[in-house]
Amino acid sequence: MAGQYEGKVALVTGGNMGIGLAAVKAFAKEGAKTAFCARGEEAGKKLEKELLDQGCDVMFIKCDVTKSNEVEAMIKKIVDKYGRLDCAYNNAGHVGLIEPTNLLDFPEEAMRAANELNIMGTFLCMKYEIAQMVKQGKGGAIVNASSICGPEYVFPGYVAYVTGKSAVEVMSRAVATEVAQYGIRVNAMKAGLIDAGIIHEANKFIPEHIQELVNKTPIPRLGKPEEVADCVLFLCSDKAAFVTGASLVMDGGYTIQ
Fold first, then answer.
1. Which residues in 39-183 belong to E strands, given as ranges?
2. pLDDT tens digits, one per residue of 201-250
3. Is 153 noted as a catalytic residue in this protein?
4. Catalytic residue among 5, 89, 161, 254
């Protein structure tokens, strides 16, 4: 049986680990020709080979999404190989500092680096993804990785992360209003505590705090990367054809407390 993304072309940024990797696998499993990017070429090429050996139609592209020329070149490579781009999950992001750090001690370079990736990276990806979708003239769907960490909920010590993810959510809504006329939808994915990279790293510094947050969650466990990927695929699919400018919360109920 053909998957729901048969004949579609998808892009996942930051697709070499964690939630991004889960999304790459999910798109490919559902029949999409799937491009994914990351800055680490060796790891990306290794993953590409593994997925190709499993029968997935994937392509790894080395790309720093904070660089306009690299993002533009990435979209061109996708179109050169697959002919089009139908949907994108802009997942690449940066926490700033894993260890909680108050404002007075927070390094300026960490703030700049985090928001260069979270804000500028998302902006550039949308700019070139949407340019291609408009050129095709057949609509498209974009999901940007936000977080429950901002704007409604903030966690002390993570000023760079909550600032960047809040900006991603607002930027997604703003762009959604601009591109709906082209049949392009833009939504944000607000994941909570997920058993992936950032939480794994944070557990080295604040395991008691992470466990406390899990205990306060109505569904008292960490979410799975695959569960986030399922939500992303829904937002990119025709089943969400009337959904744009939304922020889908997937946090086990944490934010409804």
1. 58-62, 87-90, 140-145
2. 777 777 888 899 899 999 999 999 999 999 999 999 999 999 999 999 99
3. no
4. 161
